[in-house]
Amino acid sequence: MSLIQIDSNAGERPRVGFVTLGCPKNLVDSERMLGLLSGAGLLSTGDLAGADVAVINTCAFIEASRQESIQAILEVAELKKTGRLKRLVVTGCLAQKFGDELRREIPEIDALLGTGVEEEIVEACKLEGGSEGQVGKAGSLWGAEVPRALSTPRHTAYLQIADGCNHGCTFCIIPKLRGRQNSRTIEDLVEETRRLAAQGTRELSIISQDTTAYGTDWDGRQHLPDLLRALAKVEGIEWIRLLYTHPSRFTGELVELLRTEPKLCKYVDMPLQHIDDQVLTRMRRRVTGRQTRNLIRALRARVPDMSIRTTFIVGSPGETENEFRTLKDFVKETEFEHLGVFSYSQEEGTPLGDSEAQLKEGVKETRRREVMTLQRRVSKRIHARRLGQRARVLVDQVTGKGEGIGRTMHQALEIDGVTYIRGTGLEPGRFLDVTLTEARAYDWVADAN
Ligand code: SF4
């Protein structure tokens, strides 16, 4: 959860406090809304307790994220009863999917904006505003012309290239929340990247529900390599990082681009969800275990120094001991550089959510822990191999004690670990060549001298 506040600095105009939950895609929506609010004359300020208006940008991806969002709304609603807060606005996926229920259960909410109607935020934050909810237009998109107030350090920014998803995985409610895929044009994305670079952005993290599906909504063809080549030409951008790829959409052209384009980080985030064919079929992932293994082999063979992040879902309905064992073996043999595991979350209205073969929470949690334990051992082995090697880091911040905190091209912002840097020349936004001197569980310590 991140908290950003903006303040009008003027008696008449309201101070707005902003809470963002969920994924980087939601963070970009918040940055756009903040950009619009700031364009309307509001400025950043102190703490939520001093705000006149609170905006909660919610997440509804899984049950845990819905609970976290509801908890945040309830806490802020308390401020309305006891503090100076005059208005409570709820935006994002939870507002899109459960607007009516939220209104009924939490009367302190004054305005609701679903996904795709965030441009209404200035109206929604007006103190004299009404209390009508705004139905979302899932799948509609922001363009480069909408201002953005970055909440990341300015040298690193997310670039959202599309919204929505056409895959229809049977465990996922994202298509219901965000609609069908809608890709932004290459020109619009290059324009936004130029603006970001002019403000000092050096690293771009490419996001959408499935970045490898970019452009397939226009003509069925994948346009991601075209986009990446165009973005790599933007002066000032030095690292481009690919997040949220889908194994069924990886092409030889994309692998080759990862190998040859120096600005593309040798890093890919590819949520695989599972490896057993039966489970993949039940999840409707449209990819087999064999195809996935071949893809990983090709990435590792053709792209030197490649680092792969993945996520798995364990304990989905009907997952047998055998199927789970196949996943564990795969984790051991593949040695992913970064790995996350979720225990399956039952989502109402999805085919797997409606299945009667649900596993007990205890089983799911035990399986999740087992995979994490395996991965800790894998991480140690990978770290031992890299110890003493040279690496390039981007410095994110310098602490009061003069220590740098940054990331190698194998560490995505706020997703993977960090690199603690000792030495001189430390400055946020600067690239440095370092030696990796010490490995911690998920982080590195490096020497910049
Ligand atoms: S590809 Fe991702 S966002 Fe799309 S349906 Fe599958 S899990 Fe959901």
Quick structural overview:
The protein has 13 helices and 20 strands. By secondary structure, the chain is α/β, with parallel strands linked by helices.
CATH architecture of the largest domain: Alpha-Beta Horseshoe
Separate helix tally: 13
Amount of helix = 25-40%
Strand content: 15-25%
For the record, the count of structural domains works out to: 3
Find the count of extended strands (DSSP E, 2+ residues): 20
* Structural class by secondary-structure content: alpha/beta
CATH C-level label of the largest domain: Alpha Beta
Main sheet attributes: strand count, strand direction, barrel closure: 7 strands, mixed
Q: Kindly report the oligomeric state of this protein.
A: single chain
**CATH topology assignment of the largest domain:** pyruvate-formate lyase- activating enzyme
**Biggest sheet strand line-up:** 3-1-2-4-5-6-7
Could you tell me how far the N terminus lies from the C terminus, measured between alpha carbons in angstroms?
Answer: 36 Å
Query: Average pLDDT, to the nearest integer?
Result: 90
Low-confidence stretches: 1-11
Q: Enumerate the distinct ligands.
A: iron/sulfur cluster
